[in-house]
Amino acid sequence: MFEARLLRGSILKKVLEAIKDLLTQATFDCDDSGIQLQAMDNSHVSLVSLQLRADGFDKYRCDRNISMGMNLNSVAKILKCAGDKDTVTMKAQDNADTVTFVFESPNQEKVSDYEMKLMNLDLEHLGIPETEYSCTIRMPSAEFARICRDLSQFGDSMVIACTKEGVKFSATGEIGSANIKLAQTASVDKEEEAVIIEMDEPVTLTFACQYLNYFTKATSLSPQVQLSMSADVPLVVEYRIQDIGHIRYYLAPKIED
Amino acid sequence: NDGQRFLSDFFIQP
Questions:
Q1: Using CB atoms, which residue from A157, A252, A257 is nearest to B6?
Q2: What confidence tens digit (pLDDT) does each residue in A172-197 have?
Q3: Which of A24, A64, A216, A218 is most buried per CB count within 10 Å?
Q4: What's the ipTM?
């Protein structure tokens, strides 16, 4: 028996919004530590890694490890039927070929259940090596979303250059060029609003704007985002989900001209 | 393809 109940059901709605444009299907691996999902987009350029810890759920039971392959468009359709304040419960029997989503309104007056067929997915699971990153940048997630949106008007690629002075985002295209520089916040009153840079070595890497824009669909999950970069390795864009886990996106760089 | 690299260049295949 698998059962995971979340009073803050809107978290699951937001998680689906954050992955459904990048992935069409994925496997939710459940064990007694929680729910994990790792999947690459179709072009094998980016990867989503989601972790929801068991202790972040209001009720969590997983008697046997279970892997549930799901069509994410279908899951997103079902979760759209949940109210923002609903409690969401996912449950499945051992060896089941369906999963059931139960939505309960705050006053318990409306209870809905949606049963969905599971899929057998044979997806590639990549091993991600432990990496010490040369630069980590923490910044407001809404600011990062704004920068990605603004710069993608100028070109398909964005250069992210991190030095000890700050971080510069740049794009160049037919209409011209754009540069956005963010300095490290001098004094941190509200950590959520701060730009904080930890740098061992400066790093400059180029990434496809399209994927960065997909990642920013996770903005509503966290007020802050963390970018981790080292020369010639994939970028990590991490949104922490309060008290329950995180969603990390990895993006392979482009080779610079 | 415009210099885009793939994750399999960096991550370990099973």
A1: A252
A2: 999 999 999 999 998 878 888 999 99
A3: A218
A4: 0.93
